[in-house]
Specification:
Layout: H1 4-21, H2 33-44, H3 64-73, H4 76-81, H5 106-117, E1 143-146, E2 159-166, E3 175-184, E4 191-199, H6 202-214, E5 220-221, E6 232-238, E7 245-246, E8 251-256, E9 261-268, E10 280-286, E11 291-299, E12 303-304, E13 311-318, E14 325-334, E15 339-347, E16 352-357, E17 367-377, E18 381-388, E19 397-398, E20 409-415
C-alpha cells in the first residue's frame, strides 16, 4: 500500500518535473462529481453521511451540493489520506489478512483527494447515479429480543452494568443457531456496549431469573464478567460503530432453544441526555448449520504505566488440543478511550497475523470479517497486544469496568 508520505512525495515530484521540463503528455482527466466521485461517496460514505435523521455522521455527502459544502468546511482529504475515514482501522493491504470492508482503493482515494482539493467539478448531471437502496441489516429476522421496557441508567454511578433476561428462541430444547444479529440501542448517549449471552445450564437460567426477581427495577445489576457465575457464553456483542453482523454461510453459534438468554448492557453516563434506553436485538436463526461456531475471547493484561505514549497490554489463549482443524472468520477488538492500535495473531500449526489496527476510535468499533478464512488447529495459541496512550494519566491505568478504566480484548469468530 502507498503511504500518505509516498502519495505526497509523488505529487511533489510530478509537479517539479512538469515545471522544469514541461509535459508532452496530455493532462490526466479532471475528476467530476456525477458518476465518478459520486460513486465513491455512495459506496463508502453515505451509509453514515446521509440525509437521514438517524445518520451517525454530523454532515451529509448525499448530493453534489452536500459534497461541495463538506469539502469547503471539513478536512476530507486529510481524513481519507490518513485513513481515519471511512473509519475502518484494520490494515487491509494484504499484509495482515484481507477484509470485506469499505477500505478505499488507492485509485479511489486519489480521485477523491484530487476532486476535493481541486475545482470540485460537477460534470454531467445526466450521469448521476440513483441513490443507493439501503440493504436490510439481516437477510431475515427470525426473532427479536427486547430488554422488556425503558431503562434509565442509575444516575448515582458513572458506569451502570445492567442485565436483562429475555425470551428463549424456541419452545423445545432442540438447538437453534444464531447466524446473524443486529443490535439496536435506543439511546446512544448512554449505550457503551451490549452483549447477548446464552446460559450454560438450567442452574444458570434459574440463577439469572432469581437475580432478576430480587431486583425491583427492570433487569438486575451485574458486572463486566457476565450475568451469572453459574455459567454464561458470549454470543454476539455490540459497541459504538458496529453494524449488523452476519456469520459466514453454513456457520452459526448454537443455543439451547427453550433456555432464556441475557442481554448485558454497559451504560456510561458521562454524556447522558438523561433519557432511558430500550435495546432490541434482531436475530437471523437456523435450525441446522454445517459448521458450529463460537466467539473466542483473548484478554490482554492491562497494567499500564502513566505518562507513556505507547503503553502496551498483551495476553494469550491456547485452544484445547482435542479440537482438531478449525477456521477463523474474523476479528474484533475492544479498548476504551486511550487505545491507539492493536494486533492479533496465531502461533502454532500455521502462524498468521489475524488483524492489525493502525488506529483506534472508541466510537467506531468494528468486527472485521475476512475475505478468506484462516486455518487454525487445536493446540494453537492466539495472542493480542493493545497499544494505549497514557500521556495524560498521572497514575498507572489498570483493567476496569468503567469507561475511565481500560480493557484489551480480542474476539475471534471460530468454526469447525
Amino acid at each position: 500500500m502507498k503511504t500518505v508520505s509516498t502519495l505526497l512525495i509523488a505529487a511533489v515530484a510530478s509537479a517539479l518535473v512538469t515545471s522544469a521540463c514541461g509535459s508532452s503528455e496530455p493532462a490526466a482527466p479532471v475528476p467530476v462529481y456525477y458518476g465518478e466521485v459520486q460513486r465513491i461517496l455512495q459506496e463508502s460514505c453515505v451509509e453514515c453521511h446521509s440525509d437521514s435523521p438517524d445518520r451517525l455522521a454530523p454532515f451529509s455527502l448525499a448530493s453534489y451540493e452536500d459534497a461541495v459544502a463538506a469539502a469547503q468546511t471539513t478536512p476530507i482529504a486529510f481524513a481519507v489520506l490518513h485513513r481515519t475515514m471511512p473509519p475502518y482501522y484494520a490494515q487491509n493491504d494484504g499484509s495482515c489478512q484481507t477484509f470485506t470492508s469499505k477500505w478505499l482503493s488507492e485509485e479511489d482515494l486519489q480521485t477523491l483527494v484530487t476532486w476535493v482539493n481541486g475545482e470540485r467539478a460537477a460534470g454531467d448531471p445526466a450521469r448521476s447515479l440513483p441513490p443507493p437502496t439501503p440493504a436490510p441489516p439481516l437477510p431475515a429476522v427470525d426473532a427479536t429480543l427486547d430488554i422488556g421496557g425503558d431503562y434509565t441508567p442509575d444516575p448515582r454511578v458513572s458506569d451502570d452494568y445492567r442485565c436483562f433476561v429475555v425470551d428463549a428462541l424456541g419452545s423445545s430444547a432442540a438447538e437453534k443457531f444464531v447466524t446473524g444479529a443486529h443490535v439496536s440501542p435506543s439511546n446512544f448517549t448512554v449505550a457503551h456496549h451490549a452483549i447477548l449471552f446464552s446460559l450454560d445450564s438450567a442452574q444458570a437460567e434459574a440463577d439469572a431469573l432469581a437475580r432478576d426477581a430480587a431486583d425491583p427495577a427492570l433487569g438486575y445489576r451485574c458486572s463486566s464478567s457476565g450475568p451469572t457465575e453459574s455459567g454464561a457464553t458470549f454470543l454476539i456483542g455490540w459497541a459504538p460503530g458496529n453494524q449488523a453482523q452476519l456469520f459466514p454461510a453454513g456457520t452459526g453459534i448454537p443455543v439451547v432453544g427453550n433456555r432464556k438468554l441475557v442481554v448485558q448492557m454497559h451504560y456510561n453516563l458521562a454524556t447522558s441526555d438523561g433519557k432511558p434506553d430500550r435495546t432490541r436485538i434482531d436475530l437471523d436463526l437456523a435450525d441446522t448449520v454445517a459448521s458450529r461456531g463460537a466467539m473466542v475471547a483473548v484478554r490482554g493484561d492491562v497494567n499500564l504505566p502513566a505518562r507513556t505514549p505507547d503503553a502496551t497490554a498483551s495476553g494469550t489463549r491456547r485452544l484445547p488440543t482435542n479440537l482438531g482443524k478449525l477456521r477463523v472468520w474474523g476479528a474484533a477488538l475492544h479498548m476504551h478511550q486511550r487505545g491507539i492500535g492493536a494486533e492479533v495473531s496465531v502461533a502454532g500449526s500455521q502462524p498468521a497475523c489475524l488483524a492489525k489496527l493502525e488506529q483506534w476510535s472508541f466510537h467506531w468499533q468494528h468486527y472485521y470479517p475476512y475475505v478468506n478464512a484462516v486455518p487454525v488447529a487445536g493446540g494453537d495459541t492466539f495472542s493480542v497486544t493493545c497499544h494505549f496512550d497514557t500521556s495524560n494519566d498521572a497514575t498507572p491505568v489498570r483493567w476496569g469496568e468503567g469507561s475511565a478504566d481500560e480493557m484489551c480484548l480480542a474476539y475471534l469468530y471460530v468454526s469447525q
